[in-house]
Structures are given as C-alpha cells and as structure tokens.
Please model this.
Amino acid sequence: MAIKVEMPKLSDTMEEGVIAKWNVEEGDNVESGDIIAEVETDKATMEVEVFDAGTILKILASEGDAVPLGQIMAVIGEEGEDISDILKEAESGSESTSGAGKEGTDQKEQEKETPEKEKDDDYDPVFEDSDQGQGKAPASKDTAGNGRIKASPLARRMAEEEGITLANVEGSGPQGRIIKRDIESYEPAEAPAAATVSREDKEVRVSQMRKTIARRLSESKFSNPHYYETISVDMQAVWDARKQINEVSDTKISFNDIVVKACAAALRKHPEINSSWHGDKIVQHGDVNIAVAVAVDEGLLTPVINNTDQKGLEQLQIETRELAEKARERKLQPEEMEGSTFTISNLGMFGIEEFTAIINPPNACILAVGAIKEIPVVEDGEVVPGKRMKMTLSSDHRIVDGAMAAQFLNTLRQMLENPLGIVL
Model:
C-alpha cells in the first residue's frame, strides 16, 4: 500500500516548510529512519525522516518549494504500484500554492551558485561584520554562463557600497571570480557628468524566518506597551580588564561576553526584569536564560544561553561562539532558541552609538547595546579622554515600571564600571 509523506510540523510556530534539499530521487529504496529531505522552517533547517520502508515512487515538491503543513511531499510504496488517486489528491491540495514553486526553485538555484564566503582577519562569529550579505550589487554581464557574475558575497557588498558595477571589474579569483582585492584595486573610468542609470526593481522572496520575524515583532510592538530608558556607562575599567584577561587567557573574551555576564548578575538582583506576562499573572523566572541576537541573511536569530548567571566568562564566550556559528549555518535546533528570560542586542561593532530594540516575547525587556566611543570627559576639573557606551532598555510597561528599569540599569552600570566583581 502506497504511503504519503506529508510536510510535518517541525516547530511550534511552523505553518509551512521550504524544501531545502532532497536526499533521495524517484526510484530510490529507503528504510525506516532514513533522512529523505531537509526542510527550512521559520526557525531552522530540519531533517525529515521516513517511518516506512519502500521505493520513492513520486516526489511532488521541488527544492525551493514552500509546502504547507500536511501537504504531500512524496509517495512511498512498492515499485510499479498505482498511485493515481494519491496524485489527484496532491494536485487538488496544491493548487493554491503552485505559484510558489518556480520562484523558490529559482532562488535555490541562485543560492547553489553562491560560493562560500570569504572571512576578513577581524571576522566576528557573533555579529559578523566582514561579509554578511546586506545586499547584492547589480550584475549586467554573464561570466558564469547563466547571466550571473561570479563574485564573493563580500565583493558584492563592497561593490554596492562603492557604487561599482561588477560587470566592469576583472576577477582575479578562481575561474575569474571577483574577490575583495579586485574591488579594492578597481579604478573606474570617468563617466559623463550628466549620465544617469535606470535600475530595475528587484523582488525578494520572503523566507520562513522573515515571515515569523514580521509576525512576532509586529505582535510584540503593538501588543506590548513599550517604553525606553537610556544610560551611559564609563567603559574604561572594562577596557582595561578585558585587555589583561586576554593577555593570559587562551580564550579571547569579547566586550559582549562581559556585558552578558554583567546582565546576568544584575538580573539576579532585579527578578522583576527577569519576568514574563501571562495574562492574569506575572512569572518571575528562577533561571536566568539570556538570548543573544545574531544577524543572519534573512534577519535575526536569538540563541539562548541557559543559566547564564552560573557560567564564567570563558564558558560564555565558547558557548556564544558555538551558538552563533550554528545560527549562521542554520543548524540551530528549536530548543536552542526557546526559554529565554531576557535578550541582548548588540550593534556596537557596527559603529551604532544608540538604538532601541523591540522586545522579544515573552520577555519583559530587551537591552540594546551601542558602540564604545572615545570622547572627552571631565575628571577632577580637567578634560581627559574617556570611553563611554550607551545602553537602552526596552521594557513592557505591564510588567516593569520606570523606576524598576532605572534601578536595573544603574546596577548594570555599577557592575560594568567595577568589573572585578563579575569577572571573579
């Protein structure tokens, strides 16, 4: 008897999945427990296994197709078995989503052609300031045989920022691929003063992750009464302490690691900040589980460091780096993004001095961390160089009042300005 392989529910918020990869072809024999496909959900890329042995009689979704929950992806049975009834059922169930397949397939074909990214010497695995694709430069010349110019993601971003057309650049990488040094050494010919270029609009398919981000943050912003408080912190002591630690430690501690550690200690002193709203009650969580926002192509992922207050700086650095790398590779499991009680979003490494962040539900608060800036400050009546960093706490007013948030921020500032207590 033929068996239908339907799109399973792989996360609690999943409504549909995109076929990232098929591991089998029609005619292949499979056993119970075999992984036949990889599916992109709203949170991660998950594996789909079969529970019955047989032959893959039909694959009904192409790589890149968005398949709703419960819709048939493939059919397993005995070779030569009649599956016409199942195919009719699948056809009637997929009419409303048939237009998504070709677009998704085209998108996947482009992704397959994109080579692995280059890494700069100052590449950071948490915030990735080197070559994370923020946009693609327009291509007007076919150097890959299919209308797509061969260039690394970093080169594409640099070209877009500098206004360089990739079609005018000679690539020095493998098979003529355009890389970073080609953009750096490019000298454009002078264009006519009055010349203008008309560029076509570009439509970008909304990924499962982006759909979920849009839904969750819209709900948070318009359902939770946000308010914001900003504080400035003297980071000279942290600057000096980090330098000393990294001189003797094999693990290189980042400023973000120290901020995470300080937040965990401050949350233990202010349990009302480490809370969530549950309609008729407020839950003050016993554990301190801090989520750290990590930028990926489609948006942000928030892997969670459980029991953050019980871990040292080296352990926090190692765990944060591992989770960030998994986020980049879309290998985070749902349980690694669940259970947070507080969230930190750090844009300091991008030079952002101050910003506000939307609360990550069901958290009561999220901390937005800016860059450490060297500015003139007055000490003992004299103007001297100082290092300052601004932090903005977004709070849910249903849970946290203004004075509570202010007390938490002052505790956090005191800890960062006297970091010996949190380092030990």
User: Anything to note?
Assistant: The mean pLDDT is 83. Residues 208-223 form the longest helix (16 residues). The first strand starts at residue 3 and ends at 6.
